[in-house]
Amino acid sequence: MKKELVLQLKNISKTFGKVKANSNVSLDLYNGEILSLLGENGSGKTSLMNILAGIYFPDSGSIEINGESVSITSPKDAYKYKIGMVHQHFKLVDTFTAVENVVIGLDSRFNKEKRKALYTEIESRYDNPLGCANSYDEEVELKKARKLTGFDLKEASNEINNICNTFGFVLDPKKHVCDMSVSEKQTLEIIKTLYRGVDILILDEPTAVLTPQEIEKLFNVIRNMKLAGKSIIIITHKLNEVMEISDRITVLRKGELVGTVNKTDTSIEQLTEMMVGQKTELNIERSEPKGAEKLLEVKDLCVKNVFGNEVINNVSFDLKEGEILGIAGISGNGQKELLEAIAGVQPIANGEVIYHRQKKNKPVSFFHKSLKQIKRLANEGVFHDLNGKPVSLENVPNKEIKTQVKAGEILFNENETMYLKGKNPREIRELGIHLAFVPEDRLGMGLVGTMNINENMMLRSYRKGKGPFLNFKRPRDTAQSIITKLEVATPSANVQVKKLSGGNVQKVLVGREIAYAPSVFMVAYPVRGLDINSSYTIYNLLNKQKENGVGIIYVGEDLDVLLALADRILVLCNGKVSGIVDARKINKKQLGALMLGESL
Amino acid sequence: MFALLLCEAFLLTPIFLFGSTGETLTEKSGHLNLGTPGTICVGGAGGMIGVAVYDSICGGFANSNPFLTFMFVLFFALLFGALSGLLFSFFTVSLRCNQNVMGLAYTTFGIGFYGLIATLVNRPDGFLNQYCGTISRLFMTRSEAPNGFCEIFLSHGLLFYLSFVIAIVVAVVLKRTRVGLFVRTVGENAGSADAAGIDVSKYRYITTIIGCSISALAGLYYFVEINNGLVEFKNIDAYGWLAVALVIFTLWKTDLGILGAILFAFLFKLPEIYGLPSASLNILFQYLPYFVTVVILVIISMVNKKAVQAPANLGIPYFREER
């Protein structure tokens, strides 16, 4: 097959507000090749492809298809130029069947063109002028072709089956999307584009949600399409897959083009360097965990989603004070549900969440215990004095004991066990447990976008104040101290939170939760979308909390950060724990294997 | 007695049916138009204007032609309905206003508009009443044999039959045609529709305009057939809210809407005809349509099956480049 240039992007730029998604990116694509678009999260891969698919319109730059300059203003235009994209979040209608999903958006003109093409094809095969069939076979075929005019789901189903046979898919056209597995949905999305006869197929992170076997199947299909002369662009950040499937690789970093290389001329090391720039050593100061006391214990936790499927399946772990427990996993493997279940937002189907409260150096009082009990407990060695030495009250006169108790000189450590299952966040707070939760959805669950910083502080303290009136002073003070301490870039505390940039929003949220003096601190993707400086501010904040003896659960997607920040890492796969490992002794590759559900 | 009840109930049915068919069509495209009661009022006002305009053109009732009168009122009712839909779509699609706020505001506006037009158009000689009389007799097949089969099913004007025809046509279009599939897609998942090359804004505009035009016919029907051209405002907006409730009651299916509309009209008329023993019982019966709608809502939320739920993107605006 002759290599022909089918697509050229020239100096594409696109900004969202202040964020530069792409700046001056150029890219070539030939027919019958597989091009990988490689880059870290937020490097502008998806934005660039969305421009090609007509979802976004570029601010500047030009697109040429088969040497012709075109302007793609809508997805419909993209299909016109035979470009199809399978988005990471599938664009399917749950209540429709597969075939209905395939035909949506196709007007009668599409069918007419198809019929015309079929006519010419039959005509040329039988070498006859159209309509004068002189063989039975031809007449049958023409009859079939004539049927292609109207809205005919049966015909479309047949066509889908044909596509399946050609490229090696398996799909039932009559199946409803809501009954499909993720892999089937992806298959359907690909078929949807093939049905429209695309020549350029874009796949956004196609393997993120698939099992290894499904990935293998997908790659076979992609190779078949390549043999059929189609061009395929795969967006990914997985290097091994890039090396396995692609012909050429284009690397983006922070919205800019780093370069394009042939697979045969490159290595994983070179690609990594292109992807991340100079090797960045993460300079996160990690201290040894201080205490060894258990803070939180999760036992055989099961959580079901609204459809009754188990999203968390028998998860057990514990969290010690002064440690950071990282949670790794491909996104959507139960991280969100796990945190929400602990925080009391999601109902727990089965299992226990146990909180251990250590109260150190608590003075004994006669309010709780009688003199007799105190004596008995002292014999058991429960009490100690102000210097931490054990107190024995044997042979001490009662009067002396009374004065010592009243002076608060006899102390003890208390270990209280609390069961959090079935309690909502307010009930948990009323138990005196300071559980802070920074959800991944900052402006959805964490903060109210249209309220200002002061008011958002109040979401934590709205129950304080006299009678029906709110206490405004404390939230205002908290807001002010967060703004100065965490260097939130805002004109004042009266600015609506949604108007702040992502990093500042995160600082406000994390700052508020820390101001609440938590003992367990749960954060989900706290640095997503943040620049490097803001990220380090967050890491330092977390480490400071750790030194104060707070137990931290950190859900992250960047494995380097997890390895450098966490003390232990729990890996989730399909809602199950596939391993709890020491972050100091494991490497990225082993972690990746665990994430895929393999054992070490 | 029962025949009389049936007869009265059938007379009322098209109001609910027009209203709910229009609203269902609108909601299927993802637009929650709470302006339907207002649109119905505006449709009625359109009918009045139609009569007034024709009256001034032909120069008095004596020279009038019933068929032309009918065409005029139909035209103006549809026009005002379409304008309502256009306004709603312009505010919610183009200006991205909140659909609920816009709808409720439009309902308030529509009720006021009806009153305003009524005072402007009405004359002491009762010409509206005269014209409406001719229109409602225009397409009537027969009207003898009181309370028999003919009275119940055949003694109605064209609008009566039109309501059933439109309900069936809309059901078939939504279920069986390509355009219907696209409309449903827009209502279920506007993002998918857009990615598949469907112009979401265009579809929402057009379905809302058509839907509102159909709803406006309910107002026209009320003005011509029920109120016989009298302008006083009774409870036309209450019929409108019942039509909105009917959409939920029939699970967004306009063919089921025919049965639902008959049932609602039946329940609505039952106490009036039978003269229930106490006033409170009377009110209780008139409340029944709302009550069964609530029951249906509870049931569909318990069933938790996607096929019987409201369109998934109902009430959600769509903007492609939002991140």
Helix count of chain A?
21
How would a crystallographer describe the biggest sheet of chain B?
A: none
Give the strand line-up of the largest sheet of chain A.
Answer: 6-7-8-3-9-10
| Poorly predicted parts of chain B | none
- Strand content of chain A is 15-25%
Q: Which key phrases capture this entry?
A:
heterodimer, A: 600 residues, alpha/beta, Rossmann fold, 4 domains, 6-stranded mixed β-sheet, 36% helix, B: 323 residues, mainly alpha, ABC transporter involved in vitamin B12 uptake, BtuC, globular
Q: How would you explain this protein's 3D organization?
A:
The complex is a heterodimer of chains A (600) and B (323). With 600 residues, chain A is of the alpha/beta class. In chain A, the strands form 4 sheets. Chain A has a 6-stranded mixed beta sheet with strand order 6-7-8-3-9-10, sandwiched between helices. Chain A starts with a strand and ends in a 5-residue tail after the last helix. Chain A has 4 domains: 1-82 and 198-280, P-loop containing nucleotide triphosphate hydrolases (Rossmann fold); 288-351 and 421-434 and 518-533 and 541-600, 3-Layer(aba) Sandwich (Rossmann fold), CATH 3.40.50.300; 365-409, no CATH class; 445-516, no CATH class. The model of chain A has no long low-confidence stretch (mean pLDDT 82). Helix content of chain A is 36%, strand content 24%. With 323 residues, chain B is mostly helical. Chain B has a single domain (2-308), classed as ABC transporter involved in vitamin B12 uptake, BtuC, CATH 1.10.3470. Chain B is built from 13 helices and no strands. Chain B has helices at residues 2-28, 36-58, 66-94, 99-121, 127-138, 149-154, 158-176, 178-188, 190-195, 200-226, 236-249, 254-274, 279-303. In chain B, α1 (2-28) crosses α11 (236-249) and α3 (66-94) runs antiparallel to α4. Chain B is globular. The mean pLDDT of chain B is 88.
